[in-house]
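User: Can you help me understand a structure? I only have the sequence.
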Amino acid sequence: MPSSIVPSLDNPNASFPEKLKGKWTLVLLEEGTCCYRAGESFAKDAFEDYPDILEVPSFNEAANLAQTSNHILLIPHIHRIIGEIEADVRWESMGNFIFRLNNPPLHLASNPTSNSDTTDSCACIEPLKSLIKMEKDGIKNWITTETTQQAARVCASGEAEYCVTNEYGLKKYGLKSVRELKKMEICWHPYQAIKYN
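Assistant: Let's start by predicting it. Here is the structure, written out as tokens:
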């Protein structure tokens, strides 16, 4: 789909062809994640009345909980689950409400106070592993997490020396940025469960 058709919610003049009416619930990953940030932008621009927000720890749990009437699952185009959801007959894409949003800066981060023995491990969500150059960054092992905030918690606890997180994770968990990573624009796809009679 051409980017001129998919609105960028970074643009204050962007809009959807219509507003969603009635009572809705957005099922999002926890506060601090890019999913939560995208959900807040979507909630402000796509609904007549601000929807309820239900925070969950993973997209798999979000998909389970969003199979209720008037619940919306918001998935980024870079996550593996989007193919599963798109092909699943229980879900329908809300194509008129797909949007783009610049991702907050991501960082390779470390815990400056850690005395961890895990000097070669990095906590990271699967789609972001390609942002890291393992040999250059001295990383030999991955600890796969569900969110950037979970990755930050793993690093802060000393289970990994490094993580990939955003500025929210740096501040909340007292981590130090080793370097800023590639900037990305994410395309967000809302889905709702199909209602069978």
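Now, to help you interpret it: The first strand starts at residue 25 and ends at 29. Residues 34-46 form the longest helix (13 residues). Let me know which part you'd like to focus on.
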